[in-house]
From TrEMBL:
Residues 475-493 have a biased composition (Basic and acidic residues). It holds the Pfam family Peptidase_S15. This is CocE/NonD family hydrolase. Residues 473-493 are annotated as: Disordered. SMART domains: PepX_C. Gene3D superfamilies: alpha-amino acid ester hydrolase ( Helical cap domain), alpha/beta hydrolase, Galactose-binding domain-like. GO terms for molecular function: hydrolase activity.
Length: 573
């Protein structure tokens, strides 16, 4: 039942209307809370939608923002600073998606990909909000991550009263949200189940598995058997448990059993939907989690209407409750919703923060500067040099490492190569590639590369990363360019590795922007599992790592004249 309360903070009163019922076109009602000023004047509204629960978002009124590695950081409090939204003259409306929280209906699959399109629900929700007496008919949206993806799904449906969106840290290519270079990422498990710094979805018994609901039982059984036969999956208890008891982890079950890209993920890919979006879009992303930078740039390039993109500075995790980027957001909405000519549309469409120099580079499109991809070659004694190896394989010792499964060791083996100290500022902006000539003694492994800027004092910062499952090394010839490799990651493109065969693996390095200052070095690390603790991982939630390789693998890296293992990086010119 709807009821009102008042919250007072800093001498300001916020009127809270709890448990509004918002009808969808199929008769299902979603639950929502509205936060507004203590007067009755209609205001524009900012809508936030997710399965994380509107009650969790209400903590933004009482909990100071937490930064990683605070144990109070909760990745799901993402709907924004309620008090500031109201203070800026907007109504903040926070809703529970169908099948979650206090809403009716079923939620089937990750992003409800097996049920009613979430964009359709968002359309109905926005139009209902616009018709309320406390709204002046103008609506924007708010929130990061899942909330951000919901903004894109909503805008693609073109609700008439949606005037603009502001998206920070959204997830776009849904395959890349769960598999990086074909390597499973554990963070979606945390977001669903509430583990390692996340409260998770506001669970109800109406959250269903898309696989169990929509796929024949014999096909599901075959897919489960196939996944259990993968040594990586079989060595990880949580995955084995989920595959045997899927109704306890329904969305995670769907992800585990769909480890290849294709129609399952592409059906409602927000990047694919970008061409349908007409409202002005402001995108923001911070460096440090490369796959989100990659997807944000791809979405930006697909948008046809008024748009802006800010690529911000490291580190990658914003505070929770989320309060960053509000200044930019309100400038955007003041222009497009309130009609205030604040000059935002006279500014460059793209702003990129460059690590190292700490400069902001502005331009009309990505990349913001002309780029020349140049090679840095893996050479003896851990060196990374501009000149290739002149000697043949018979004269050059290989590099290599043996990685035991993490079931029997807690040691992650790393190979490193580094440049000489830079003598002058050297700027790189864009994606890159690693060409690695490697033989392994198994039929599969992971390649994980991480590039660091190492200072003369010994401090270092992650610049970018790349992931590739060896059996998914096939390249998309139509999309691949020098320094910008693309992999289809489809079932049809899988190429099991022949043990002992030397293969060239081309790993995509996610887009980045960095200047290496004099005295600094570029260091590249190669492993097949992620280090359990380091300067970067300590900033992330505990579950934000990838599925380890579950078999012992010996990796032999060739770097001779015949096998020029190298990085290809985007030097600005």
């Amino acid at each position: 039942m709807t009821h009102q309360t008042t919250f007072t903070a800093g001498g300001r009163s916020i009127r809270i209307t709890k448990d509004l019922r918002v009808p969808m076109r199929d008769g299902v009602e979603l639950a929502a809370d509205a936060y507004t000023g203590d007067d009755d004047a209609p205001r524009p509204a900012l809508v936030a939608l997710s399965p994380y629960g509107k009650e969790l978002q209400a903590l933004a009124l009482t909990m100071p923002p937490q930064r990683r590695p605070s144990p109070m950081w909760d990745g799901c409090i993402e709907a924004g600073d309620i008090a500031r939204v109201v203070d800026e003259g907007y109504v903040h409306v926070i809703g529970d998606l169908r099948g979650s929280g206090a809403s009716e209906g079923e939620h089937i699959g990750n992003y409800n990909a097996g049920g009613v399109p979430l964009g359709q629900d968002a359309y109905d929700f926005i139009e209902w909000v616009a018709a309320q007496p406390w709204c002046d008919g103008s609506v924007g949206m708010i929130g990061i991550s899942y909330f951000g993806s919901m903004q894109v799904l909503a805008a693609a449906e073109r609700p008439p009263h949606l005037k603009a969106i502001f998206v920070s840290g959204g997830h776009y290519d849904f395959y890349e949200t769960t598999y990086h270079g074909g390597v499973m990422w554990f963070m979606p498990r945390a977001a669903r189940e509430g583990r390692g710094g996340d409260s998770g979805w506001a669970f109800t018994d109406r959250t269903k598995s898309r696989m169990l609901e929509n796929v024949p039982a014999d096909e599901v059984a075959a897919r489960v058997a196939e996944r259990l036969a993968d040594p990586d999956v079989a060595a990880w208890p949580n995955l084995v448990h989920t595959l045997h008891y899927p109704t306890h982890h329904e969305a995670w079950f769907d992800i585990i059993t769909n480890n290849f890209d294709g129609e399952w993920y592409e059906e409602r890919n927000p990047i694919t939907l970008a061409r349908n979006i007409e409202v002005p879009v402001y995108l923001q992303i911070d460096q440090g989690r490369g796959w989100t930078v990659d997807g944000t740039i791809e979405l930006f390039e697909g948008l046809q209407g008024p748009k802006r993109l800010d690529i911000g500075s490291y580190p990658p995790m914003q505070s929770r409750p989320w309060v960053e980027e509000h200044d930019k957001m309100f400038r955007w909405y003041d222009y497009w919703i309130k009609g205030i000519d604040n000059g935002i549309m006279d500014e460059p469409a793209l702003n990129v923060f460059v690590e190292g120099s700490r400069e902001v580079v502005s331009a009309a499109a990505w990349p913001p500067k002309p780029v020349e991809h140049r090679a840095l070659y893996l050479r003896p004694r851990g060196r990374l040099l501009t000149e290739p190896e002149p000697m043949g394989v018979e004269h050059v010792a290989t590099d290599g490492f043996f990685q035991a499964p993490l079931t029997v060791t807690d040691r992650v083996e790393l190979l490193t190569w580094s440049t000489p100290a830079f003598e002058e500022q050297t700027e790189m902006i864009g994606p890159g590639a690693a060409h690695l000539h490697v033989a392994i003694d198994q039929d599969d492994t992971n390649f994980i590369l991480r590039l660091w800027d190492a200072g003369p004092s010994g401090t270092r910062q992650l610049i970018t990363s790349g992931y590739l499952k060896a059996s998914q090394r096939a390249l998309d010839a139509d999309r691949t360019r020098e320094g910008d490799p693309r992999h289809p990651h489809t079932r049809e493109s899988v190429e099991p590795v022949v043990p002992g065969e030397v293969v060239e693996y081309v790993v995509r390095l996610y887009p980045f922007a960095a200047t290496f200052l004099p005295g600094h070095t570029l260091v590249v690390e190669l492993s097949n599992d992620e280090p359990l603790v380091d300067e970067h991982n300590s900033l992330l939630p505990p579950d934000a790592f990838h599925l380890p390789v579950g078999r012992p693998v010996t990796h032999t890296i060739y770097r001779d004249a015949r096998h020029p293992s190298r990085l290809v990086l985007p030097f600005t010119v």
